[in-house]
Fold these 4 entries.
Entry 1:
Amino acid sequence: MVTFYIVRHGQTLLNQLDRAQGWADAPLTASGEQAAKELGKSLSSVVFQAAYTSDTYRAFHTARLMLEEHGHPDIPIHQDARLREWCLGVMEAEQNTIFIKRVSEWLGGVSFSEMNKRLPEVATAIKQNDTTGMAETFEQISKRLKELLISVGSAYPDGSNILVVTHAFLIKTILYLFHYAGIGSTSQIRNTDSFRLFYDNQTFKTE
């Protein structure tokens, strides 16, 4: 069985400013860097075979800081666009309160927790109201995500531990796909939150 340690990146400037952040990228704050280091130290007993991140600087920087504090800065970090956050289209860098309000309105006034249970509809609403042409469907997002996890999970022997640093909506997608029963109680994925995802060469499961 291969174990993925799924981590959300550290706090960024846009996070600090409470702005929506999808394909838009921003540097880590000092607080974000410190939290990444602390998480790396807390995982010092785990032997990682490799690390994978999205192609954003904030994810790569988080992984680099974690591995340096972990004591293994030589572990290779593979950047892959399939781990990229959802594109938020015209909502990129919008105030989070406005972003959530708009999506709620598009779905008929649902609550934030209800949005988590209806991620495919959230993705559809974002795409339908996007004028940039960049937003993806939930099927497209799920496809790239599962392709990455299966290809990486199949490339390493049983007992391997893989660090994955990605983003809040993509982590919610993982939970929706592989642990839907727990998605309703997940109010928010905070910076440097983490959990384990297990792959036995056939199926995925979470703790």
Entry 2:
Amino acid sequence: MKEVLDFLKMCGVYYLATVDEDGHAKVRPFGTINIFDGKLYIQTGKKKDVSRQMKKNPYIEICAFKDGKWLRLSGKAVLDERIEAQIDMLDHYPELKGMYKAGDGNNEVFYLEDPHAVLYSFGEGNKTLL
């Protein structure tokens, strides 16, 4: 899990794919990733389409690319309403504190249940990380 976290942090931006209400794929850049309570977490705002999409169809995929390697991470996004999880995420991303507060009714954190991650490479073999 640490290797997944480190790769995504090294990339800075990764791309999160969901399915919208009409069954169409949606992809957007994301940047928050954290390990809390032994699970990988992401953060978003409750008012955003991505939040509604993950609640309706929680199966997501993340993709990131850096230096000829790319990571594909998939799993079920599960909303964690604990304030402690929100605080931990904001402590790791203090730049978000201007937009979000723990318990503000908009800040949301999701963890990945049953994550599966594979690191791919041009010229090197693929490596299953989770």
Entry 3:
Amino acid sequence: MFLLNKLITKIYDDFDFIEIIKDIIENENVKQMKNFRQHYNTNCFDHCFVVSYYCYIYCKKFHLDYTSCARAAMLHDLFLYDWRKKENGRKGFHAFTHPKTAYENASKFFNLNDKEADIILKHMWPVTVFLPKYKESYVLTIIDKYCTLNESYHRIFK
């Protein structure tokens, strides 16, 4: 947890990155993600924040659309519920259904472009059957899995 907090502090020092997602991280609905645990000791907000930063860095380095990827990554898990509990008539497995829920929530609060929509909707590929349309969608898919494993590592291998 210490390393994650240290990384998050470092990320906040990257002014260019923060400017890209500032309206998102200041949104009250997005801030609610801090109330939901994602992977072990990591909440949804922190998970998305770190994933977003890695997407930004990777896409910038490889001359991809780092703005759309960073913004979509910050919103990719905006489902706003405890996925460990079956509540409010939710049906289906979380892994299969949460991209659509996150997209629906994100599109209520923000004007998403086509690339951002694709990135959010298909970030769980290959679990979500349809192929991502953009390179940036694959970037988030891979970085999300990497961060999930990183957040889970200490719990799994203790």
Entry 4:
Amino acid sequence: MPRMPKQRGMNALVETRNMSIRIGGHTALKGVDFSISKGEIVTIIGPNGSGKTTLLRAIIGALKPSSGEVKRQANLSIGYVPQKLHIDPTLPLSVERFLGLPKRRSAETATAALAKAGVQGIQKRPMQRLSGGQFQRVMLARALLEEPQLLILDEPTTGLDQPGAAQFYHQIEEIRRDLGCAVLMVSHELHVVMSASDRVICLNGHVCCHGTPEVVASAPEYRELFGRGTHGALALYRHVHDHDHSECDHEGVDHAG
């Protein structure tokens, strides 16, 4: 069994212990130990069907474990950006009105959230006329309205080109710095993940390996899943930021088995 990732302190915002989830007779996740603490950016990677979204839904509380447990800090505030959101194209819905659903928000509050998400001045624009990047940032602004201690993003840059994805993840780093929140992301963009994460968790129905981006990229399990050439992404997208890693897991990667 994989050991739980080391944390910066004992006060994890969310922690799963030996958690398994069965959906329709299928075991989606088995024996998952996971935790995330304040200020961390943690990214979950894995092939299609590996249980990434299932893990997020369990953390949010939308799915109950079949065994094991999920522990959340009391009164934990979570902001969530889903992988997809379909809006009826015939529905006249402005950005400002969208941000006010289901709970009405003041214009000042909506404006501030849009500014934090990097899309100022589009309050009156119809949601249907937004570009892909603008739509995702409005979704991010909606999550920020919750003043989250934990911000969860499920493949938030799907459909964006590489520069657009990199800009979005840079915005996430700024939000983490300004709000002090933890960020948990699912992504398939390995090159960007390696530049934007403190820790990476490789999932394939269970935790295959985890650690800093550098050590995960060196793990045999990672290379088996994603190909040996993916290690070169680190040379182009080295993660640089200004907070303290002294309590992070630098001793190496933990493996399943």
